[in-house]
Design a protein that fits this description.
The chain is mainly alpha-helical and 291 residues long. Among the domains are: 99 residues, no CATH class; 90 residues, 3-Layer(aba) Sandwich (Rossmann fold), CATH 3.40.50. Helices cover 40% and strands 8% of the residues. It is built from 12 helices and 5 strands. Helix 2 links the parallel strand 1 and strand 2. Helix 9 packs across helix 11. The radius of gyration is 44 Å and the shape is globular.
Length: 291
């Protein structure tokens, strides 16, 4: 009986060891619920931007020196305060060239026809029309569209832009606007006797199509106590004013001005004067077209 019990006990131990050594069957894993990714919202297609005009990219301030050709002024334009202000406000360094005081229109045409590589040409309306008629200008519409929106919205009337358009309707120039329009309302005239009584010799700038340097020297300067400057074009005003307001340049500028005007008066006096008839003599010599 004891042998049977021992045998049974031995079998139990063997079976237990076998059970420990055998790998227990793995319980089937529960399948994880599949989480479907949210469907991607279709992106709204951005409408393609219309192709703009092909224009060259700006080189930017500090990377280029602009060359400007303008009217003659009696001062060193490159060292004038106006040039410094423009460079400080825009960041662009500019080299200034001026036309001669005599035969400026002819010199301008020669410069342009000779391939002068100026970036800016400051011209009056007559010079502009001449250059446009000669085919010397390129349209600026594409550049204004990309870079000149502020210029287009700068307050110029449509009549001004029409004056700058060619026969093809394109714009070939940019109008110049006086930068301080509020000052125009402060301009005033004064009586000469009151100025003299107050000891004021304010400079006088004369311009417009109805006068000339000769007329200024002969008729205006001799009867005015202060400097009288003939300014052919409005673009010269700032340069002349700068020379007159600067203590370092005023004296030399006024001395040169008076010397030039005296030369003009001498030239006029040296000309052989054509004798004039009296009014009665001229009427007596009038042609008769009906006899």
């Amino acid at each position: 009986m004891k042998k049977v019990f021992a045998l049974i006990l031995a079998l139990i131990m063997v079976l237990s060891l076998a059970a420990c050594g055998a790998k227990a069957p793995e319980a089937p894993k529960a399948e994880e619920p599949k989480v479907e990714a949210p469907a991607e919202t279709p992106k709204a297609e951005t409408p393609a931007e219309p192709a703009g005009p092909e224009v060259p990219a700006l080189k930017g301030p500090g990377n280029v020196t602009l060359k400007r050709l303008g009217a003659n002024v009696a001062l060193d334009v490159n060292n004038a305060w106006g040039a410094k202000i423009i460079e400080e406000s825009t960041g662009y360094k500019t080299e200034y060239f001026v036309l001669p005081s005599e035969n400026a229109d002819e010199k301008l045409l020669m410069e342009v026809s000779g391939g002068g590589d100026y970036d800016i040409v400051n011209a009056n309306i007559n010079q502009y029309r001449t250059l446009l008629a000669q085919g010397a200008l390129q349209p600026l519409d594409d550049l204004l569209e990309v870079y000149g929106q502020a210029i287009l919205a700068g307050g110029h009337s449509e009549a001004v832009w029409d004056a700058l358009r060619g026969e093809d309707g394109k714009i070939y120039g940019v109008p110049y606007m006086y930068p301080h329009p509020e000052e125009i309302a402060a301009f005033m005239t004064a009586r000469m006797d009151l100025l003299r009584a107050a000891g004021i010799n304010a400079p006088l700038l004369i311009g417009g199509a109805t006068t000339s340097a000769m007329h200024t020297a002969l008729k205006i300067a001799p009867v005015y106590d202060g400097p009288v400057v003939y300014v052919k074009d409005a673009s010269q005003n700032s340069g002349v004013a700068a020379a007159l307001l600067n203590d370092d340049t005023r004296e030399a500028f006024v001395a040169q001005l008076k010397s030039e005007q005296e030369t003009l008066r001498c030239q006029f006096a040296a000309k052989e004067q054509t004798p004039l008839l009296s009014l009665d003599e001229a009427r007596a010599k009038k042609p008769n077209f009906f006899d």
